[in-house]
Amino acid sequence: MASNIASKLVQLQGKAREASKFVAKHGSSYYKQLLDENKQYVQHPPDVEKCSILAKQLFYTRLASIPVRYESLLKEVDQLKHLVKNMKELKVEHCGLAALFGVECIAWFCVGEIVGRGFTLTGYYV
């Protein structure tokens, strides 16, 4: 068992080395290509005033989208009420999908906790 894990670790280290070399070799060209393709979104010069304006635009754009999101929330709640009211019509597939979604949410929560702890399973660094 330990030798199996050790061999997998050696394989993983080799793949990580290959990926690191690939990024070192091609990363800057990809970065330049990405910036060239999206140069219309870059603000020149990046001063505080422009960044402040962009932050305000983002804030008010998000603020303006609240009514639309609220309406979609109400539709979702109405669908949930209808589903609870007509529980007899509920299919096994729907219950399975709901359970799978719940398990996925719990799994992502656990991953977030592990990342927040600094990638440790035992606890926080003190």
Would you give an account of this structure?
With 126 residues, the protein is mainly α. 78% of the residues lie in helices and 0% in strands. The chain has 4 helices and no strands. It has helices at 2-37, 48-64, 66-85, 92-116. The protein is flat, with a radius of gyration of 24 Å. The model has no long low-confidence stretch (mean pLDDT 87).
Distance between the termini: 33 Å
Task: Show unreliable segments.
Answer: none
- How would you classify the helix and strand content by structural class? mainly alpha
| Structure annotation, total helices | 4
Q: What's the story with the biggest beta sheet?
A: none
Mean pLDDT: 87
Overall morphology: flat
Relative strand content: under 5%
Helix content: over 70%
What is the succession of H and E elements?
Answer: HHHH
Our Rg estimate from Cα atoms comes to 24 Å
Q: What characteristics describe this protein?
A:
126 residues; mainly alpha
Q: Any chance you could write out the topology, listing elements then pairs?
A:
Layout: H1 2-37, H2 48-64, H3 66-85, H4 92-116
Write a brief caption for the model:
This protein has helices spanning 2-37, 48-64, 66-85, 92-116. By secondary structure, it is mainly alpha-helical.
